Amino acid sequence: MDSVHDDRAGGAATRVVPERDLLPLKILVAGGFGVGKTTLVGALSEIPPLSTEQQMTSLSDGVDDVSIVPEKTTTTVAMDFGRVTIDDALVLYLFGTPGQSRFWFMWDELVRGAVGAVVLVDLRRIDDCFAAIDYFENRGVPFVVALNGFPGTEGVDDDIVREALAVPPGCPIVHVDARDDASCTAALIVLVEHALARSA
Amino acid sequence: MTVDRRQRPQTDGGRVVPNYAFTAGRTRSAAGTDMPIEALVTATELGVAAAATLSPESRAIVEASREPQSLAEIGALLGVPIGVARVLVSDLAAEDHLAIHLPLVGTDGRPRRELLERLLDGLRAR
After folding, report:
1. Which residue in B has a C-alpha nearest to residue A112's C-alpha?
2. pLDDT tens-digit profile of A84-111?
3. pLDDT, tens only, B67-76
4. What integer pLDDT is reported at residue A3 of this predicted model?
5. Helix H segments across chain A?
6. How far apart are the CA of A63 and the nearest CA of chain B, in angstroms?
7. In whole angstroms, what is the distance from residue A54 CA to residue A40 CA?
């Protein structure tokens, strides 16, 4: 499958994407402050995590009441990100996104075209993750819930976690050490497998 | 002999379909606000040749983009918000100093299946 020389015989079905046809992909890493988003991005990234700012237009408070014409406000949000070169043309970007509930409705632009999301969770502070789980679930964005292995959180039964966090059926729960490249890579593999299963 | 490159490209009005929906993920025209933060930019030969005549920030973008850079990386490099980087990159692309490589998404707005499979292969090989 590596050979592309005999492509006349292969036909369109086995066509390999031409070399140097650069394509970016992105995965979002969501979670509350201090949960380890930047650590996870840094463990995977081939460059030191960079920070960038994005101005986002958001709705003001009271967003649940759609009968009210909302006022718009502009908020600047800082994001850490990293890069993983996948092959000679495919480049994956990881964006760490703040998970406070008041930000989540701003992410429509950010999630467009994303492979999916990793919702990073500290089991000692689970309040931070509900908004992210709701958001991705409602938008139909594939995601996995990744439990970062903080001290004292080992050995918690996944079924209890699923119930406590209201993780939807079929949404994978994985255990990660956000400092460890292999552990984080494994979580991304589960996410992509999940996204593939849903795209079938 | 400095040239003011700050003129904005003419907006061609009324485009509502994202460029990447019909350009197979690639365009050399100004992608405007449709350019997502992961869009990759590469310097063209024209851009490299013209680099010395460009404004300092444009020159920095072109020089950095000898290797592919995302819009997010351009923003971080210059220390400017994504929106500013997007305008600078659009200007340079409109003058063929940069090529823009946009994500390839299906009709459902998600990356196409074959890209997910390539991503999976790449991650498993790490």
Report:
1. B109
2. 999 999 999 999 987 665 666 567 778 8
3. 999 999 999 9
4. 41
5. 7-10, 37-44, 108-111, 130-139, 158-165, 181-199
6. 25
7. 21
Is residue A126 within 8 A of residue A165, CB to CB? The reply is yes
Backbone conformation region of residue A140, classed left if phi is above 0, alpha if psi is from -120 to 50, else beta: left
Radius of gyration of chain B (CA): 15
DSSP B16-58: -S-GGGTSTTEESS--GGG--TT-EEEE-HHHHHHGGGS-HHH
Minimum-distance CB partner of A185 among B68, B113, B123:
B123
- Rounded to an integer, what distance in angstroms lies between the CA atom of residue A55 and that of residue A77? 6
Residue type, B116: L
pLDDT band of B115, cuts 50, 70, 90:
very high
Whether B75 contacts chain A with CB within 8 A: yes
pLDDT for res A72: 58
Phi-psi category of residue A86: left, alpha or beta, with phi > 0 → left and psi -120 to 50 → alpha: alpha
> What is the arithmetic mean of pLDDT over B100-108?
89
A76: phi then psi, degrees, rounded to nearest 5: -100, 125
Smallest Cα distance from A124 to chain B, Å: 30
Look at residue A52 in the predicted model and tell me its pLDDT.
85
Residue of chain A whose alpha carbon sits nearest to that of B119: A86
pLDDT of B7-34, one tens digit each? 434 344 444 444 343 333 444 444 455 7
Interface A–B counts its CB contacts (< 8 A) at 122
SS3 (DSSP) at A115: coil
Could you give the domains of chain A?
A: 21-60+71-199 (3.40.50.300)
Q: What is the ipTM of this complex?
A: 0.81
- Interface check for B68 against chain A (CB to CB < 8 A): the answer is yes
